[in-house]
Design goal:
The complex is a heterodimer of chains A (about 120) and B (about 110). Chain A is about 0% helix and about 55% strand. Chain A is mainly β and about 120 residues long. The chains are: A mainly beta (about 120), B mainly beta (about 110).
Chain lengths: ~120, ~110
């Protein structure tokens, strides 16, 4: 049974960079059938796709966040990561890591981690 | 900028049937958008219900079905139960690896 576990600081200061890592268990991040992604949800609001990455490093980002987002993969650790730069309070959200079927569908979700942007 | 539209809220009686829709601010939804549907209860991560228009995710009961109705994607829930009370989100694939979530529909069973 696939497990996805987000980790990283729960508090980030404005203008700094948010960094999160997702550890994948019971599947290989090099599985060619899947992409890996990040989705976020501000408090009391809807879901927003941030980006997706293939194990080769092929990436796709939300155009509205593209200038601030970097995703990467570490196949040796079976992990993938998110960096979001120049954060503001508007970036406060629960961040979910996820597995995507053929880039088009999220088929598994992590439990999510709350990141608060505040000084 | 393309907006994916959903009803903000919907009410259904226990045992009833409801159909939620997922549209585009401009244009029609077809299977080429690979519509998918997700259920989320408060404090929990979303759960994948439907992908590629009408394929049920593993473990999802057949009370949940997906389709294209007219120019929108649709999620139909038959025999509504109390634990179907949730938020439901659709996602459309825009091509070039881009996914867009709808704003979500809050479903109340009463």
């Amino acid at each position: 049974q696939l497990q996805l576990q987000e980790s990283g600081p729960g508090l980030v200061k404005p203008s700094e960079t948010l960094s999160l890592t997702c550890t994948v268990s019971y599947d290989s991040i090099t599985n060619i059938d899947y992409y890996w992604g990040w989705i976020r949800q501000p408090p009391e609001k809807g879901l927003e796709w941030i980006g997706s990455i293939f194990y080769t490093g092929d990436t796709y980002y939300n155009p509205s966040l593209k200038s601030r987002v970097t995703m990467s993969v570490d196949t040796s650790k079976n992990q993938f990561s998110l960096q979001l730069s120049s954060v503001t309070a508007a970036d406060t959200a629960v961040y979910y890591c996820a597995r995507l079927r053929t880039r088009r569908t999220v088929d598994s979700w992590g439990q999510g981690t709350l990141v608060t942007v505040s000084s | 900028q393309t907006v994916v539209t959903q009803e903000p809220s919907f009410s259904v009686s226990p045992g009833g049937t409801l159909t939620l829709t997922c549209g585009l601010s401009s244009g029609s939804v077809s299977s080429s958008y690979y519509p998918s549907w997700y259920q989320q209860t408060p404090g929990q991560p979303p759960r994948t219900l439907i992908y590629s228009t009408n394929s049920r995710s593993s473990g999802v009961p057949d009370r949940f079905s997906g389709s294209i109705l007219g120019n929108k994607a649709a999620l139909t829930i038959t025999g509504a139960q109390a634990d179907d009370e949730s938020h439901y989100y659709c996602v459309l694939y825009m091509g070039s690896g881009i996914l867009v979530f709808g704003g979500g529909t809050k479903v109340t069973v009463l």
